[in-house]
Each structure stands twice: as structure tokens, then as C-alpha cells.
Amino acid sequence: RRRRVLELIATDAVVTPRDKLNAALILQHTPGAVCDGKLVSTNPEHYLLAHHYAKAAFDAGLTDAGMLVAVTIDRYLAFTEGRQRYGTTQLLDLSSGQMYLPAVDRTVTDEERARYGVPPLATLLQQAPERSPPTP
Predict the structure, then answer these.
(1) Residue 103 near residue 130, CB atoms below 8 Å
(2) What is the sign, positive or negative, of the torsion defined by CA atoms of 27, 28, 30, 36?
(3) For the segment 9-22, what is each residue's pLDDT rounded down to a tens digit?
(4) What does the CA dihedral 58, 42, 89, 104 come to, rounded to 10 degrees?
(5) CB contact at 8 A, 27 and 5
(6) Residues contacting residue 115 through CB under 8 Å, at least 6 positions apart
(7) Beta-strand pair 83-84/103-104
(8) Which strand (E) or helix (H) includes residue 26?
(9) Quick one: average pLDDT of 60-75?
(10) Is 98 in a helix, a strand, or coil?
(11) How far apart are CA 75 and CA 49, in angstroms?
């Protein structure tokens, strides 16, 4: 499905807000793999592309794209920088088997989270512990 979506994108066939939302839904399901004992994305750029399509759909009036706007950028940042903006992505610590939140950007307000349908940060932090961002 991802291959087909990329073909449609390459031929400018992803046009309507609903097309963009559907493309984002498929691209955000890019699989992960284990590398050096860590869960990594096989192609994090798919998450960024999904984010742009979800945001375009949301900006065009598809309110059901809101959560996907937050999820896709969080997924991209979690797999590339070890942090996230909204707090929607939980990852699995392969050594402990426990779920955790990559570090969450405290400059993002609960009002901004609510705009995209994301629960308040306090609620998200009750679901899984947060990890500090990796040191550069």
C-alpha cells in the first residue's frame, strides 16, 4: 500500500483533502525494525510526508485529520531526534519491555494539543513515563 501511495504522489494523483488524509494514514504505518537493540523506523521520512499531507487535509477543513497531524510529526521526531512535540508517540524499550514517551516539548500548550484532538500532557504522562531526550 505504501508503494502504491508513493506512486500516486509521484503522479500528482493525491489531490483532494480526503486523498491527502488517506495517503497520510497509510504512510504513517511505515514499519519499524530492531537495529543495535533499538527500535528504529525503516523510513522516518514517510512520517514527515504523512505529516504534510495530514496538515494539508486538516487545513482544508477535514477536522478528523487533526490527531494525525500530531501523531505523524511526533513519530517523525521520535525516530529521528528522540523527542516529540505533542506526546502522542509511545515506544517500546526492548531491554525492559516497558512503553515510554520520548521527551515531550513543554512549549506546546494543551490548547494546541486540543486543536488537534490530543489529550492534555498530564493525561498523556499518566499513560507512560517520559524519557529525557538523548544528549547530542
Answers:
(1) yes
(2) positive
(3) 889 989 999 999 99
(4) -100
(5) yes
(6) 66
(7) parallel
(8) helix 17-27
(9) 97
(10) coil
(11) 11
